[in-house]
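Listing 4. Sequential folding, example run.
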Amino acid sequence: MPSAYEILEVDRDADHDTIREAYRRRARRAHPDLHPDDPEAHERFLAVQAAYEVLIDPERRRAHDRDPEGVLASEVMNRRKAQLKRRRARLRRLFQD
């Protein structure tokens, strides 16, 4: 898995504003709604979101600098779990009616 810096295409010394702009640019390009026929678009979008979340938090960014793969992978996994939880809740609400 590439590092968060590679995903957002920023330098390691990028400041908060640069990271935010890179996130917005990459999120627009990777958004799954723009690529409905691409089955991997959602995974790319999750990676962009996770990279942003890691790099804007100074503590998580330091942890990422020490262990890039571990921190980013756990963030992506947490996002997948949260998404599945939301989907299950929606399905429960649909079938309760």
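-- end of first protein; second protein begins --
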Amino acid sequence: MLEFLAAEGGISLLDVNPGLAIWTTVTFLLVLFILQKFAWKKITGALDERSNKIHEDLDRAERVRKDAEAKLEDYMEKLNGLKEEGQEIIAEARKDAEGLRNEILETARKEAEQIRERSRKEIDLAMDAALDQLHKDVTGLSVQIASQILGKTLSEKDHKDLIEQSIKSVRSLQN
């Protein structure tokens, strides 16, 4: 299209038109003056305000980031402390469980020993009772046999003395 205009009327883009240049300059200066007088302060104020807000937001973001890092570090320290405390609690629980186990085993061993000792005493008492009964029976039979052989009956005192002597002799044989 420019070639068309250049061919018909002789307008070229490289041609300088002094009137057009002056009016363009005057219009530019007039717009610049109006902008400076009425809008420039508002525009620069808004830009400064926006710049300050951006700087404040960046500062606040930096403070929040540092605060978050500090809290993260605190939480990590607390977590490590809790882990150590948990390990200590587990170790103490194991120690307590081991002590309780040993205590239970010791109690069971003592009870078993007491039962064994009681059983031995009961067995000894039963054995003594059985031996006493046996001695009485043997003595009674011996007295009957002896009285039949001798043809006489022993007195009760003789009978007691004979039983005591028999028991003493049997006990001395036991030991």
